[in-house]
Design goal:
Length: about 400
């Protein structure tokens, strides 16, 4: 009777579970194997500030993995991390090799050893929280309807040194499909455009997958955003500074020829293709804000459309009524006849009401240089070969 009771006690002792999983003994007579000996998880349980390039790996020395579930908690949202168990059943890796930053990972694994016994393991770790982040301010706005000359432009709030990595994380696509290529202007601006103006009706999608991309040493992106815009009708206007006229063409047909005044001989207007980036019913124009002295300060300029970052506008003009079609008197802008307070019946009001952000205004025959490609959305002044050479990812 004593022998029977002793044998029963041995069996009862061997059947106990560890605190982390089910089973896990080499044999009922041997020392139980802890789940961490059966199932290996990297990074280690409880690790903190894990860098994004550290590998996430689950493996077993023998037997096979039965199930692996990895959950990432980031920005108060939980999402399951996709991955695959190897064909031999000995390892699991995530589909995306890089870890997310500022996230908490939970790993739950069930495995069978070589004898068919089941073990389970639960681990957690947290990833590095960067001190510095970068974002890109995008043009145009989400769901906008724009002219055929619109260029997708991103202005970054920090200098980008790893340009190729950032460029690869941004995808600009069009429907119907057209080739779209990027061009860097310095370390803080990246523009995208097709070889020719967009076709009317094109729908463009911009996918910014910049979250956790290292744009510079220790500086990581924070955006994960997708936005779209639609290209409207085609309107391209040709300003002849010598003839003092502007031809407005809609879908290739001449809509109107409008008298204008351009930059005076001392303050000429840039030549070249410029894109409307902003439309204001009324605005103040002060010469000191664009590098002049105190030549003018007009509080109520009507129907103003910005063409360059440096301050070139096409706008209504009510203070030089005899200049239109006759002489150039502005400080570099293109003026159309208007009245004080603005009127939709004036040439300036008529043009404003028929314009979109993204429309092209091309100036010719001005005694000035061609506008710089990075002054506003002036990228159309570059040939396609020169434009594509500005990509950080060589094709």
């Amino acid at each position: 009777m004593v022998a029977v009771l002793t044998w029963a006690g041995l069996l009862a002792g061997a059947a106990g579970c560890t605190s982390e999983g089910v089973g896990g003994a080499d044999s009922v007579f041997g020392k139980p194997r802890a789940p961490q000996d059966v199932i290996r998880v990297s990074p280690d349980d409880g690790s903190r500030s894990v860098r994004p390039d550290n590998p996430l790996l689950v493996r077993v020395p023998s037997g096979r993995l039965e199930s692996v579930k990895v959950v990432r908690a980031q920005d108060a949202q939980d999402s399951e991390v996709s991955g695959r168990i190897s064909e031999d059943g000995l390892s699991w890796r995530p589909d995306d090799a890089r870890l997310a930053l500022a996230a908490r990972y939970t790993v739950d694994v069930v495995a069978l050893d070589a004898h068919g016994r089941r073990s389970a393991r639960h681990t957690t770790f947290t990833t590095y929280v960067p001190d510095e982040r970068f974002i890109g301010y995008a043009t145009p706005e989400n769901r906008a309807t724009v002219g055929t000359g619109m260029i997708v432009s991103l202005e970054f709030n920090r200098e980008i040194r790893n340009r190729a990595a950032v460029e690869r994380a941004i995808h600009v696509t069009a429907e119907p499909a057209v080739g779209i290529r990027p061009h860097w202007f310095g370390a803080e601006r990246l523009d995208f455009r097709p070889e020719e103006y967009w076709a009317p009706g094109t729908r463009v999608t911009v996918d910014l997958a910049l979250r956790d991309v290292e744009g510079a040493p220790g500086v990581y992106g924070i955006q994960r955003r997708t936005f779209t815009f639609t290209v409207g009708r085609s309107q391209v206007s040709l300003v002849d500074a010598a003839a003092h006229t502007m031809e407005v063409r809609r879908d290739g047909d001449l809509l109107a020829t409008v008298p204008i005044t351009a930059g005076s001989p001392k303050n000429t207007t840039y030549n070249g293709k410029m894109v409307v980036t902003e439309m204001l019913e009324v605005t103040r124009m002060n010469s000191r804000t664009v590098g002049f002295g105190g030549e003018y300060d007009i509080p109520d300029v009507p129907h103003a459309m910005r063409l360059t970052t440096s301050g070139t506008f096409l706008h209504g003009n009510y203070w030089a009524p005899d200049a239109f079609g006759n002489t150039n008197v502005s400080h570099g802008c293109v003026g159309l006849k208007d009245v004080k307070g603005g009127s939709s019946d004036s040439p300036a009001g008529w043009f404003f009401d028929r314009s979109l952000v993204g429309d092209v205004i091309e100036v010719v025959h001005s005694k000035d240089k061609k506008v710089a490609p990075d002054n506003g959305l002036g990228g159309w002044n570059m040939g396609w070969k020169e434009w594509t050479a500005g990509s950080a990812v060589k094709q």
